[in-house]
């Protein structure tokens, strides 16, 4: 189970499963689907997981449930990152 997320810039933060759940629900997926995907990512066997691996897993799993969800998740993710850059 990952305890740390390694960001693109090399920074590390604690793994918080609910962040994954929230992002998946905000793109329009059912809460049960979101929790299932987050549970699978939480079972990652290493102490650390990078954001690219999280992103790939989320997109692959969303595609299995609905082919429109990956695009919506990418749009949500892009907009959140753009908002975050302007806040700080």
Order of helices and strands: EEHHEHH
Q: What class do helices, strands and sheet pairing give?
A: mainly alpha
- What does the radius of gyration come to? 13 Å
Q: Identify the strand order in the major beta sheet.
A: 2-1-3
First and last CA, distance: 30 Å
Shape category = globular
* Residue share in helix: 55-70%
Provide key terms for this protein.
mainly alpha, 4 helices, single chain, three-stranded mixed sheet
Short description:
By secondary structure, this protein is mainly α.
Describe what you observe in this structure:
The chain is mainly α and 88 residues long. It has one domain (4-87). It has four helices and three strands. A three-stranded mixed sheet has the order 2-1-3. Strand 1 and strand 2 (12-14) form a beta hairpin. Helix 1 (17-26) runs antiparallel to helix 2, helix 2 (31-42) packs across helix 3 and helix 3 runs antiparallel to helix 4. The termini are far apart. The model has no long low-confidence stretch (mean pLDDT 90).
Which secondary structure elements does this structure contain, and how are they paired or packed?
Layout lengths: L3 E3 L5 E3 L2 H10 L4 H12 L5 E3 H15 L3 H19 L1
Parallel strand pairs: 1-3
Antiparallel strand pairs: 1-2
Helix pairs in contact: 1-2, 2-3, 3-4
């Amino acid at each position: 189970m990952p305890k740390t997320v390694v960001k693109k810039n090399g920074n590390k933060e604690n793994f918080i499963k609910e962040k994954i759940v929230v992002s998946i629900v905000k793109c329009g997926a059912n809460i049960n689907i979101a929790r299932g995907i987050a549970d699978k990512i939480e079972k990652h066997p290493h102490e650390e997981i990078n954001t690219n691996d999280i992103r790939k897993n989320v997109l692959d799993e969303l595609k299995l449930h609905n082919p429109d969800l990956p695009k919506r998740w990418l749009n949500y993710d892009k907009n959140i990152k753009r908002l975050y850059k302007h806040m700080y």
